[in-house]
Amino acid sequence: MVEKYDVIIVGGGPAGIFAALELCKASDLKILIIEKGKDIDDRYCPVRDRTSSCVLCSPCNVVSGLGGAGAFSDGKLTLSSQVGGQLDSFLGVDSAELLIKYVDDIYLEFGAPDKLYGMGDEVNEIKRKASLAELRLIPVPIRHLGTEYCRLVLKTIRDYLAPHLEFKLETMVSTIINDGKVSGVETEAGERFDCRYLILAPGREGADWLTAEARRLELTIHNNPVDVGIRVEVPVAVMEGLTTVLHEAKLEFISKSFDDRIRTFCMCPAGEVIMETTGGSDPVITVNGHSYATHSSNNTNFALLVSTNFTEPFREPIAYGKYLARLANILSGGVLVQRLGDLLAGRRSTSERIKRGLVQPTLKNAIPGDISFVMPYRHLSGIIEMLQAINKLAPGVASLHTLLYGVEVKFYSCKLQLSSNLETEINNMFAAGDGAGISRGLIEASASGVVVAREILKRNTY
Questions:
Q1: Which of 3, 179, 194, 331 is most exposed, with the fewest beta carbons within 10 Å of its own?
Q2: CA–CA dist 326, 329 (Å, integer)
Q3: C-alpha to C-alpha distance for 326 and 118, rounded to whole angstroms
Q4: Tens of pLDDT along 116-172?
Q5: Residue 341 near residue 27, CB atoms below 8 Å
Q6: Neighbouring-strand partners of residue 414
Q7: 3-75+80-115+146-222+415-460: CATH topology
């Protein structure tokens, strides 16, 4: 017999978990969370602390599983609607800010630390210096959990939810069932689950699946910018003046060569560079960064991402990002690393040159090579220009010893046509989180889940 639920949530990341949390607190609805990855306790990367190459686990435990990619992130809660997503375009700035405060309070309730970065007069002085270097600093309050505490907070939320709903883990949803209004889902194993309300929160790793299903259902899709770039690694001392005050310096730059917008992303003070895969039937290996609350490295890392808005007839931003990542995989078997000095000299890096350098890579299995064989000239030119601009704000960033890893890609590329309460063009089917192109981080992903849950609760009282 087909199992029936009031609400089915596809995806067990922050968007799905916070939607479930809001529903469970205010109702006795029958809820099912379907997640293709493992339980949060069972997720681990077999090569995280080794020198061997990524073994392409499918799905990747770093980005898939209960807790989503957020569980293995460095746990930055960016407490402003200015960055991290597009909630303000759906709710308005004031409502988005109130919702972010509400979600932050829930994280605090479940164990997030009290300390906030990005506050005080020192921020204004950094902003002034950034403007002199032709950089725009976006000052935002940030609460940093650290990778290990981020997992603990999400596990605590999971334990709270467990008695109130059902989890179906290591299960891939293949098909959305639509009979004029949403009816349920079918899994790859052929199981069918019916529901009154469906929440699609597959995370950025599930963005390509969501895009494919949206096209099959003939839904309207808007392409978000393609975010492609590299991860930069420098000594802790180089960025310390910024990270001590801000934790993450959110900087924007307009390239002189091509007028492209380039931004810093996911700054990890005293952190580590890591690998992750996109998973799915056609996985590629990409690069990311983490920082911890209880231990530190000698380096700070951050991404520089180039945002590009493609126009017609281009319709495959995810495929484009994967193509660039695959070039790096072909050249290295995983992730490339290159000294900035070697890039500027027009030569590949070698293991010997990197060993002689002042910055030793925290990602031990990155392969020395030449990133210029991977990154488009347009993107690489802008990234070099931004490094030189940041060097005026934080001397040492553009050192010849600075390490560049590639490729970092963010697959926020599909945005469904959604109402102000995040409902799709199919009645009672909603979308939330990074995979739906709404958010770009923990806080707004979580908040988008709350938006959807509140709308369902409202409809359920009628």
A1: 179
A2: 5
A3: 36
A4: 999 889 999 999 999 999 999 999 999 999 877 888 999 999 999 999 999 999 999
A5: no
A6: 223
A7: FAD/NAD(P)-binding domain (3.50.50)
In this structure, are residues 218 and 211 in contact, taking their beta carbons and an 8 Å threshold?
Answer: no
In degrees and rounded to multiples of 5, residue 400 shows phi and psi of: -65, -20
Per-residue confidence at 413, pLDDT binned at 50, 70, 90? low
| DSSP structure string for 322-350 | HHHHHHHHHHHSS-EEEEHHHHHTT----
The bridge status of strand 192-200 relative to strand 3-10 is: parallel
Q: Which residues pair with 199 in a beta bridge?
A: 9, 430
Give Cα separations from 165 to 5, 161, 208, 334 (angstroms): 10, 6, 27, 39
Backbone φ and ψ of 96, nearest 5°:
-65, -40
Give the domain ranges of the chain: 3-75+80-115+146-222+415-460, 225-410
Contact 286, 334 (CB under 8 A): no
Please report how many Cα atoms fall inside a 13 Å half-sphere around the Cα of residue 450, on the Cβ side.
21
Residue 412, class by beta-carbon neighbours within 10 Å (0-12 exposed, 13-18 middle, 19+ buried)? buried
What are 176's strand-pairing partners?
185
CA trace torsion 247, 205, 221, 412 (10° rounding): 20
CA distance 252 to 313: 28
How is residue 111 annotated by DSSP? Answer: T
**Amino acid present at 278:** T
Measure the CA–CA gap between 98 and 9, rounded to whole angstroms.
Answer: 24
Q: Mind listing the pLDDT tens digit for each residue in 95-120?
A: 999 999 999 999 999 999 999 999 88
Rounded (10°) angle between helices 121-132 and 236-246? 130
Helices (H), 38-145: 87-91, 93-109, 121-132
Distances (CA, A) of 87 to 10, 239, 278, 373: 20, 30, 25, 37
CA separation for the pair 237, 298 (Å, rounded): 9
What's the CA gap between 278 and 74, in Å, rounded? Answer: 18
Question: Cα(first)–Cα(last) distance of the chain, in Å?
Answer: 29
Instruction: Considering only CA atoms, give the Rg of the chain.
Output: 21
- Rounded to whole angstroms, the Cα distance separating 461 from 449 reads 19
